[in-house]
Design brief:
Pfam families: Aldedh. By secondary structure, this protein is of the alpha/beta class. The chain is built from eight helices and seven strands. It has two domains: 163 residues, Aldehyde Dehydrogenase, Chain A, domain 1; 31 residues, no CATH class. It is globular, with a radius of gyration of 20 Å.
C-alpha cells in the first residue's frame, strides 16, 4: 500500500488530468489537493494494516477467558460518486485493503477513468490480482448487480437517498449483506434572517460549484 501511495504521487499530474477531463474538476486543485489526499489516505491506512487487534476479555468464571478476533468481512462492493472520484476511491478502497478484504469498485459512469488508472497503479505496486476489481457501468445495471450479488458480503455507497434506499432493499433481499451509506442532496443550505447575506451567498456558491471554482481558503 505504501508503494501504491508512492506511485500515485509519481503520477499526480496524470491523475489530476483524468479527473479534470472526466468530471470537470480544476486541474490545479486536483494536483495540489485531491490526488495528494488520495495518496495520503493509502499511506495512512497502510500504517493501520498491522494494528488491527482483537481483545482479551475477563469472564465471570476466573478459570476462563474470552477473546475477540477481527477478520476481513470478505468481498466488499464500493459504489463511488462522480464529484470526488479520487478521494472517494481512496476513502472506500484503502481501509478495505488494509483490513484484508477483496473488493469490486463501481465508479460513477461520468468519472470512471481515474479508477481504471488506479487499478493499473495497484498492479504495478504489487497488489495481488483479484484484490481490486474495477467494474465501470451504470447504477441500474452494475450498481444493482453489486447490491444484490450473493457473493458480496458488504456494500458501501455514497450518493442519493433514493438510490441508497434501493441498495438497502437489494441487500436485504439477497444475502442480507452489510451496508454502509453516505446519502444526501445537492448542497442543501438554510439561511436565517440574522445571517451575513454576503457570506451566505459566498458559501452557497462554494457548495454548489466546489469542483469548478477555487476555494478561498
Amino acid at each position: 500500500m505504501n508503494k501504491f501511495a508512492d506511485l500515485i504521487e509519481q503520477n499526480v499530474e496524470e491523475l489530476a488530468k483524468l479527473d479534470a477531463v472526466d468530471g470537470g474538476k480544476l486541474f490545479q486543485w486536483g494536483k495540489l489537493a485531491d490526488i495528494p489526499a488520495t495518496a495520503n489516505n493509502f499511506r495512512y491506512n497502510a500504517g493501520a494494516a498491522d494494528k488491527i487487534h482483537g481483545e482479551t476479555l475477563k469472564m465471570t468464571r476466573q478459570s476462563l477467558f474470552g477473546y475477540t478476533l477481527k477478520e476481513p468481512v470478505g468481498v466488499v462492493g464500493h459504489i463511488i460518486p462522480w464529484n470526488f472520484p479520487s478521494i472517494m476511491f481512496a476513502t472506500k478502497v484503502a481501509p478495505s485493503m488494509a483490513a484484508g478484504c477483496t473488493m469490486v469498485v463501481k465508479p460513477a459512469e461520468q468519472t470512471s477513468l481515474s479508477a481504471l488508472f488506479y487499478a493499473h497503479l495497484a498492479k504495478e505496486a504489487g497488489i495481488p490480482d483479484g484484490v481490486l476489481n474495477i467494474v465501470p457501468g451504470f447504477g441500474s445495471t452494475a450498481g444493482a448487480a453489486i447490491a444484490s450479488h450473493m457473493d458480496i458480503d458488504k456494500v458501501s455507497f455514497t450518493g442519493s437517498t433514493d438510490v441508497g434506499r434501493k441498495i438497502m432493499q437489494a441487500a436485504a433481499a439477497s444475502n442480507l449483506k452489510k451496508v454502509s451509506l453516505e446519502l444526501g442532496g445537492k448542497s442543501p443550505l438554510l439561511i436565517f434572517n440574522d445571517a451575513d447575506i454576503d457570506k451566505a451567498a459566498e458559501l452557497a456558491l462554494l457548495g454548489c460549484f466546489y469542483n469548478k471554482i477555487k476555494p478561498a481558503y
